[in-house]
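Subject: Predicted fold for Glucose-1-phosphate adenylyltransferase, 381 residues

User T.R. writes:
Posting the sequence so we have a shared reference for the thread.
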Amino acid sequence: MLKKELVAMILAGGQGTRLKELTEKNAKPAVPFGGKYRIIDFTLSNCSNSGIDTIGILTQYQPHALNAHIGIGSPWDLDRNKGGVTILPPHTKNDGGNWYMGTADAIYQNISFIDRYDPEYILLLSGDHIYKMDYSKMLKFHKEKKADVTIGVINVSLEEASRFGIMNTTPDNKVYEFEEKPQIPKSNKASMGIYIFNWKLLKQFLIEDNNDNTSNHDFGKNIIPKLMDNGYNLYAYSFHDYWKDVGTIQSLWEANMDLLNDNNEFNIHDDDWKIYSVNYSTPSQYIGNTAKIKNSLVSEGCTVFGNINNSVIFNGVHVGKNTIIEDSVVMCNCKIGDNVIIRKSIVGIDSIIRRNSIIGNSEDITVIGDHQEIKSSSIVK
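User M.O. replies:
I've generated the structure tokens; pasting them so everyone works from the same file.
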């Protein structure tokens, strides 16, 4: 048995229906972000930078691109014989087997994987948030408080608090009430979906939850309330830096645009907390003499002959002559023809926009899904 103090488990199987066309053939954590990353890179990089070397990634919906991206974990220094990264899809057992029926059930189905490392603590994470966080500080807080569960929380406005699980706490951050998406929230401390559990205790509650036919097998709806009802010590760990749930088209677009803001608190160029990802073997970008680029991220392998303003352009994108791209996100390997106008849009992977087309407007966000072809002189709004 390999003894580890802490094992991280990343929930990465979400379908992400609110991202519409971008997740029809792709798990949400594998959606591209920020010019050269996938969303899950931020959680994996947080683990690597926090000194966590044993991680299980629970996949389910459309896992192929995600699995290929993670590989053996080399970009995050997780290609290890003792620990490292392990992909954990639902699997068949002697008694049959099911898809993961909820977040708690996903961990329950992988008890044997966790027990292999005999950990004191489990760090439960989501694979679809954009943020930089040192989990070792949260673990230190958990130990100091002698907590049974520590929940990462961030302050949100009271107007949006009803979208989250809300923690009501004492002055020393002990949680005395947990409300799942309350209509009238009593506080603005929102759960980030980041938990540290004492493993032996959590294992006991997961087994009980599995035997409860009335349960949703969910941490927020079932496990956390039951722990509270039984008098265990739950504490809220406050996080005050940038954090974004990019589960909607609006939030995904906003988070990409945040990277272009001079005053943005989320710095992807921070050498002290690097965001790691797969580096593709692509040539240097080529900026033609007809091109004009302003306040934009343009990744390697791009050939640009048109105008790009306030936009995020991923690797391998071609931008034709007299084309204008504004306030938009253009994902990997797209081909944009001549005389195209793209405004406030997200263009999915490997899509082709033929010449003389108009995509988007200055109001709503227009989405072109992955592997789409827009014919010449089309108007898509």
